[in-house]
């Protein structure tokens, strides 16, 4: 957390090294991409609050499951 002037910034990110695919439940450690989301929250003690959230997407590489139609189905 960083409080400077009229803004409070909270930084958060994942602590796990893997994620489970919501479609086939395969666990993957292969990171596809990373990006940051910025969310504006309600003021805290009269200060603007910004949440910086680091997000990762993972490759899904199931051995016995096939999503079917598009490459976008292969990422988590």
Write a structural description.
- The protein starts with a strand and ends in an 18-residue tail after the last strand.
- It is built from no helices and 6 strands.
- The relative contact order is 0.30.
- Strand 1 and strand 2 form a beta hairpin.
- The strands form 2 sheets. A 4-stranded mixed sheet has the order 1-2-6-5, with no helix packed on it. It has a two-stranded antiparallel sheet with strand order 3-4.
- The C terminus is likely disordered.
- 0% of the residues lie in helices and 51% in strands.
- The protein has 76 residues and is mainly β.
What's the helix and strand layout?
Elements: E1 2-4, E2 7-12, E3 19-20, E4 27-28, E5 31-44, E6 47-58
Quick structural summary:
The protein is mostly beta strands. The chain has strands at residues 2-4, 7-12, 19-20, 27-28, 31-44, 47-58.
Distance between the termini: 28 Å
Mean pLDDT value: 79
How are the strands of the biggest sheet laid out side by side? Answer: 1-2-6-5
Order of helices and strands: EEEEEE
Shape: elongated
- The helical percent reads under 10%
Main beta sheet strand tally, sense and closure: 4 strands, mixed
DSSP strand (E) fraction?
over 45%
Q: Report the count of strand segments.
A: 6
How many helices?
0
State the oligomer.
Answer: single chain
Structural class: mainly beta
For this entry, give a set of tags.
single chain; 76 residues; mainly beta; disordered C terminus
């Amino acid at each position: 957390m960083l409080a400077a002037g009229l803004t409070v910034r909270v930084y958060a990110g994942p602590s796990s090294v893997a994620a489970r695919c919501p479609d086939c439940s395969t666990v993957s450690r292969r990171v596809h991409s990373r990006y940051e989301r910025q969310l504006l929250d309600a003021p805290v003690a009269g200060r603007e609050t910004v949440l910086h959230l680091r997000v990762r997407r993972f490759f899904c590489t199931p051995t016995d499951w096939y999503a079917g139609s598009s490459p976008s189905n292969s990422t988590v």
